[in-house]
Amino acid sequence: MEDSYNAAGNMQNGLGRAARGIFFLAFLFFLNFLSRVLFSPLLPLIKEELQLNNSQSGSLFFFITMGYMLSVSMSGFVSARINHANTIFLSSCGTGGVLLFVPLSTSFASLCLTVFVLGLVAGLYLPSGLRTIFASVPTSFLARGIAIHELAPNLGFIMAPLVWQAASVYLSWRGCLFMVGVLLGLTGIVYRFSGYPLQSRGVSPSRRLLRLLLGNYRFWLLVFLFSFAICSTLGMFAMLPLFLVSNHGMSAQTANYIVAATRGISLFTPFLGGWLGDRFGNSVVMTTVLLCVGVLTFCIGLSSGNTLIVLITLQAMVAVCFFPSGLAVLSSFTVEGQSSAAVPFCIPLAFMAGGGLIPLLIGVIGDMTSIGTGIAVAGCGIFVAGCVALVLLRAVVEENAEI
Fold this sequence. Notes:
Layout: H1 7-13, H2 16-37, H3 39-50, H4 54-99, H5 108-122, H6 125-136, H7 142-149, H8 151-167, H9 173-192, H10 207-214, H11 217-248, H12 252-264, H13 269-280, H14 282-302, H15 305-319, H16 322-331, E1 334-335, E2 338-339, H17 343-368, H18 371-398
Antiparallel strand pairs: 1-2
Helix pairs in contact: 2-4, 2-5, 2-6, 2-7, 2-8, 2-9, 3-4, 3-11, 4-5, 4-6, 4-9, 4-17, 7-13, 7-16, 8-12, 11-12, 11-14, 11-17, 11-18, 12-15, 13-14, 13-16, 14-15, 14-16, 14-18, 17-18
């Protein structure tokens, strides 16, 4: 496989030069992620301007993740034809371009359409980004290499509210999206012509590969666990500003600052999660995180005052520790000699459930009772996922997920 990394050098020097390429990818992933989560701090303003209810507000994330799901699933067909480097380039410039058109939306229907297309283009990035990391980092450092990449979504959670608060001094929410779109497109161009992209091509999924994946319980177990892990991070982040404004009477500005501040300490905890996964086993870390986060999320929905702030902070710190181990396990799937074959199918299904359907469910429950009740129900689901992992996950990891 043609590759721009020297594997032998990586084995001798740990992450070595690969780390620089991963940090570049992480920044690109940060902007990609920011383009989607930026709607969370903007949601109270969008809701007011377009006169949306809680269910409609939550459904915006459903449409983003629906597009994202379809795109990640089809990414293999794209990378097989234009290689991983060009796929990342296409995703970055395409996502930036769509962000230039989202501000033109003047109705709920047009906004749903544009955010769906946004997810559709943004989703091309992840399989090629993970494949680049998987090809460049020695197996013994894989969880830690992924932890570097996972700086991106964690930084996105912190920066999304701060970016909006800073931009709001000069720009409307529409102008803020336009600004991020321009930056993302320019960064994608710089990455494409740097020395880091992986020039090899992806593999188009075959019918046999799909049968092997979809007919295996281990694949569906990981989809189930990733769904609730994504719910605990992206799903919670999507609804927290609305929860703090609607349930606790905070201003949108105060809610955004609280969400950003409580996620600040979680920025580097994925490194701890990666180290723990390499040291004690990925299944142990994944199970422990889900159990703890389930309890914390349930308590967030029922708490108030300073206790609520502490719980939000702890929940964010623990939840992000799932992904270095989870992605390392998912990347170990080998189907007919194809590594990382499960990524384009597991991730979109999990994003659809954890980042789309569950926020929508929280919004529906919010219209019926309160958003806090919806968050407490989501916490129960996360805890159940941890119980399932406790019983079944170790066996899957010990088998090395070999299908």
